[in-house]
Amino acid sequence: MIILLLGFTKLSVAQQVFSNHPLNAEFITTDYDNFWNLYDRLDTVSGNPFGAYLDNASDGLKPFVDYINADSLYQTVLRRKEDYLKSRHVLNGIETKKKKKVQSSYAALKYWYPEATFPPVYFVVGMFTTGGTASENGLVIGSEMLKNLDGLNGLIAHELIHYQQNVSGEDHLLKQSIIEGSADFIGEMISGEHINQVSFRYGNENEEQLCKEFVSVMLKDDYTDWLYGTSGKDKRPNDLGYWIGYKITEAYFNKQVDKKQAINDILNITDPMDLLQKSSYLEGLRKKLITESPQCI
């Protein structure tokens, strides 16, 4: 439902002032509840009931309302009723089942990054386009993508890191890969959960070949085959940029003596190329490629 925008990392985050205390983690399910109340009216009302879903959007959903079409949501629901029903009760007991784990992740981030703030987590219902994002109003989870609560802590941790990030520098594949990969790296550090197992397994099994390819394209603004979609040229999974961004971030973190300062550096990158160079990850390959094929850089 969050049509295209939930596919992006975040939307002008950290504009509001939220709690800096980990125990103030807040789950907001009003959009989820509203959706299912309207869903139950599908067979008793004529026309599309989901206009009311957008009209009564929570603060978490509001930033996306201008980009959401109630008719598209309605048609998607009619076409995929069975898929939606799989997540109908997925949030049952979420406060007791997941709140303490999320608070523990938040506390871990507070240890590593004392400047952290903790926005509310909004559970919305979308059109199967994404699992989550971070907006200026908080973290947003697409609950229709959840079949159970396994991995939810890791997903929230990933989006929480996006909320903290302040990354500048020229936009290119390297920058976006580090943005996503560092959210995976720090998110795993604080939650103990890794949310991109498929891409990481493939990446680790094909590391040398993928690194050579990445070096040749990392300063381009074309994300194909690395982020948010593949061309089908081989059997690679989506989002290998998460994997290689993780590897770069991990290498940088491991080289630093002051680990808390390393986390601060990673969350506040001013020059992605500088971080890559200081990590030493890819450096040998990059130098070799510059020598042999300078036109690739």
Describe this structure in words.
- The model is unreliable at 1-14 and 293-297 (pLDDT under 50).
- The protein has helices at 30-39, 51-55, 70-79, 81-85, 94-112, 152-164, 173-191, 197-205, 207-217, 240-255, 259-267, 272-279, 283-292, and strands spanning 10-11, 27-28, 121-124, 132-135, 138-142.
- The chain is 48% helix and 6% strand.
- With 297 residues, it is mainly alpha-helical.
- It has a 5-stranded mixed sheet with strand order 1-4-5-3-2.
- Helix 6 (152-164) packs across helix 7 (173-191) and helix 7 packs across helix 10.
- It folds into 2 domains: 5-164, no CATH class; 173-296, no CATH class.
Topology as H/E string? EEHHHHHEEEHHHHHHHH
The major pleated sheet works out as: 5 strands, mixed
Task: Tell me the structural class.
Answer: mainly alpha
Q: Which assembly state applies to the chains in this document?
A: single chain
**Portion of residues in helices?**
40-55%
